[in-house]
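Researcher: I'd like a candidate sequence for this fold, 228 residues long. If you have to choose between options at a position, lean toward the conservative one.
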């Protein structure tokens, strides 16, 4: 690969992230309770990872200035029990951001599961010291920025978490990959493929091998004197 092509790929890694970039959020923690056998291999004390992703180009559907309501069609939530497998996976839902101080969750990510139950991924920030606007979150900071972070699976048609939820879990660690890190990973893979291709072509040229454009085979010419 020519030098100018490598420079272009490197520049793309640090180019500004498009407006509709994907936000990925990972929350690690421990299951607090699991009742009623709704999710057979989810037990209290299990370690889990709750994964959330959505694009950031969605408009606020609430006209008030202290509440943001977003309905990302590509919102996905997955709960993986470490060592066991995926407990559930959902697509679609809402993201609500409330700027008024109080115990009501500052951020709520809500989704309906395939069995009809609902998942509430809740971020409490009672004094709203980490919530500056009702815009769609693209960064969540660290776990220390919140009074509490957790999730509950609610047996519908109940309207809010209670002590008899099928599953509750507490988040102890949050991770939001930076967009440029994802870009670097993609560019790195492209560079690796390109460099391997260049190495292969160099080897072919050194051995005197040729590969016809429309053929999957390679023919090689032996070095040395021509045969009589």
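Model: Candidate sequence:
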């Amino acid at each position: 690969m020519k030098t100018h092509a490598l420079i272009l790929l490197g520049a793309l890694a640090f180019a500004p992230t498009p407006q509709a970039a994907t936000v990925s959020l990972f929350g690690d923690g421990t299951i607090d309770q699991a009742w009623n056998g709704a999710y057979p291999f989810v037990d209290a004390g299990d370690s889990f990872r709750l994964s959330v992703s959505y694009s950031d180009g969605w408009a606020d559907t609430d006209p008030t200035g202290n509440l943001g309501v977003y309905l990302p069609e590509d919102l996905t939530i997955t709960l993986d029990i470490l060592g066991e497998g995926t407990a559930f996976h959902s697509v679609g839902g809402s993201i609500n951001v409330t700027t008024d101080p109080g115990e009501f969750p500052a951020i709520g990510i809500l989704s309906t599961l395939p069995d009809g139950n609902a998942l509430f991924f809740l971020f409490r920030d009672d004094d709203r010291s980490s919530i500056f606007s009702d815009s769609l979150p693209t960064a969540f900071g660290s776990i220390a920025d919140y009074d509490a972070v957790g999730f509950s699976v609610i047996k519908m048609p109940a309207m809010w978490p209670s002590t008899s939820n099928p599953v509750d879990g507490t988040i102890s660690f949050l991770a939001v990959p930076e967009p440029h890190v994802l870009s670097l990973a993609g560019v790195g893979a492209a560079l690796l493929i390109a460099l391997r291709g260049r190495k292969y072509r160099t080897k072919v040229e050194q051995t005197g091998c040729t590969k016809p454009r429309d053929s999957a085979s390679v023919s090689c010419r032996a070095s040395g004197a021509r045969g009589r």
